[in-house]
Amino acid sequence: VPELVQKTFFMVFFSGAVLGDKVSKIATYFGATLYKYPSTALDHAAMTYEVHKRKAESAQVLEQSTAILRGALTSLAAAYGPWSYVVAREKMVYDALNKCEFDLKRAVFIAEGWVATDEYEALVTSLQSAAVAQGLDTRPIINLIQSKLTPPTYVPTNAFTSGFQALVNTYGTPRYREVNPGAFCCILFPYLFGIMFGDFGHGLLFAGFGYWLISKEKEWEGKDLGDMLEMVYGGRYICFLNGLFGAFVGLLYNEAFAFPMGFFGTSRWEGFEEEGLSGMTCEHLERCELSGPIYPVGIDPIWHVTENKITFFNSLKMKISIVVGVLQMSLGIYLSLLNHLEFKDVKKVLFQFIPEVTFFGGIFGYLVLTIFMKWSTDWSCPLDHAAAEAGLPAAEGGICQPAPSLLTLLINMFMSPTADITVPLYGIECFGGAGNPDCAGVAEAGYCVYPALAAACPVSCGAPVAAGDFVDLLRAATVDEHTGAMLSSEYKICISPLQSYIQLKLLLAAFVAVPILLLAIPLIEIYQHSGNKYDNLDEDDHEAEDDGHAFSAGDAFIHQGIHTIEFVLGGISNTASYLRLWALSLAHSQLAELFKDMILGAGLKSGIENPALAAVATFIAFSMWAIISLIVLMAMENLSSFLHALRLQWVEFQNKFYYGDGQKWSPFAFAAIGSGAED
Fold it and tell me: For 362, which of 29, 40, 510, 663 could close a Cys bridge (C-beta 3.0–4.6 Å)?
């Protein structure tokens, strides 16, 4: 289309030929276009007629040219697809031929390439059939050759696994015959997402969205959907499983759209009155007890309305994050064993895998064990004096010990490994107090070697004591038989020799594992290469070039040192990184509760007496709540949980066993034309 040019018309009146020449020269100099103006009306009419005639002829020529061009393009459009396919196919053929070697003497092409083992026989049959179909006298000769080159990686996928494998390939293509994280990503990734996104209602909505995308497979498959929709459609099974796991974890939280749900019945906690269980929930009562077995599945819904809700869920979700993180990273370490066995690398099995398991299991595996032990122990007191004085029944079955802080336990395990554990978790032995041995029992048991007990029982343990000093502090509480008043409080100390012994041995094992992990493999490699002063010559030198550089002891120590530092420090940082599961789960739950109370709750509790106005207010509040929940929780929180789960999958899990430096197998196939894979 010609570009329009803005012009200004002006007319100059003059008299005389000389002046006309001067005006013409000036106008031409400034780039003006001169038009002869007719001197008579007859000339003016003739010029007008000529202009209209030329315009009509130009319009007719333009119309005919447009019709011819439209016809040509219409006929070409029908053939454009086949032509494009033929050109792309010929381009692939010539590109493949350019990679072949041409034997001038025999006038044949020699090609070397990779083929999947399962498809080798099909390849031979296809080449033979093609030669027969073309009437060739010479049949293709196919030989299997031995090569030192690392083969490319071929990972068969289907509609379900392709999205998860794409997540792994974004990080890096698997090395040939190493463990493929894509197989584990199909479950572990949605599970991590579900922990952060855990809400039964939100999870079902997201799973429904994924199912809708899956239902569009026949309609959308192979079509150009645009970048954004194509990316979402490619992850349709990821969306579906993420939603299902989010609903599953929400079922365990017994929470849907931030509403506590009794999916498996009402709360098992009931309030106490003077005569016993009141049959009422203990939401507003001072004392609560279990009315029977614990809640069958998930969290008792009463915890969603208690005053210490945040404290309870903080502790629970934090521990869940640590447990899930340590278990997943332990899986990654054991998957590295499969890699070592596959590549027949015995030295890495003995001096890398075993030290890694020893270090990681001795510290973080022990932490997970203590979490389960703390959860499974009843720390309540079998005799509650305050409850007895108030006429209330006492708790039953507990060990009447303060629950230890696991963070303090882990810190003391490193900072004071030989110090007494006075708030033990297991193997508890108490001295002093009702029903426990006193200082004489300490001496008989030979526990005077423990500083805490020796300080409480100086006489029984044989320590020098000045006359008149208060000694042997361990005692039970004394009560006046007549008045029932407590005359003296008990003095009790609890220790755990078993816990001290186990923690010290685990700590020593972890510390010994570090220098083994750092030094053993480089020293073995130095010994292996010390006897080979000269490299053996290979006929296929061009293949041997890809094996790497010559061995260097310095490089071996640097490489193993980096791996050791990364593993040891990564064990701490990666475990802490899994706390993002706790943080995002708590954030999702609190945001959903905030929107429910401040927006939806305000509409439901508006206090408007007019039914029509109350209905309008409720509808507006519900609409605002639904829109904000959709934008913030279903979109923004969804994306945040997705990215954090992807980070845990890539960094914390895959770095334990996955190299991701393989080369993707790109076979010669005409089916790749038009899919973007032919490049």
Answer: 510
**How many Å separate Cα 631 from the centre of its chain?**
22
Residues 468, 213: Cα–Cα separation, whole Å: 85
Amino acid at 230: E
Q: What's the CA gap between 580 and 417, in Å, rounded?
A: 30
239-275 per-position pLDDT tens digit = 999 999 999 999 999 989 988 888 888 777 776 555 5
3-state secondary structure of 459: coil
Alpha carbons 94 and 185: distance in angstroms, whole number: 39
Q: Are 358 and 333 in contact (CB under 8 A)?
A: no
DSSP state of 417: T
Give the H/E segment covering residue 648: none
Give kind and range of the element (H or E) at residue 515. Answer: helix 497-530
Within 13 Å, how many C-alpha atoms sit on residue 359's CB side?
Answer: 24
CA geometry: angle 596, 597, 600, nearest 5 deg: 55
Structure tokens at 443: 């001496």
pTM of the full structure: 0.79
Q: What is the pLDDT of residue 543?
A: 42
Helix residue ranges per DSSP H, 257-353: 309-342, 346-348
Q: 256 forms bridges with which residues in the sheet?
A: 259
Q: Any idea which of 135-144, 171-180, 401-410 has the lowest mean pLDDT? A: 135-144
270 phi/psi in degrees, rounded to 5:
-130, 155
Helix axes 182-196, 579-595, angle to 10 degrees: 40
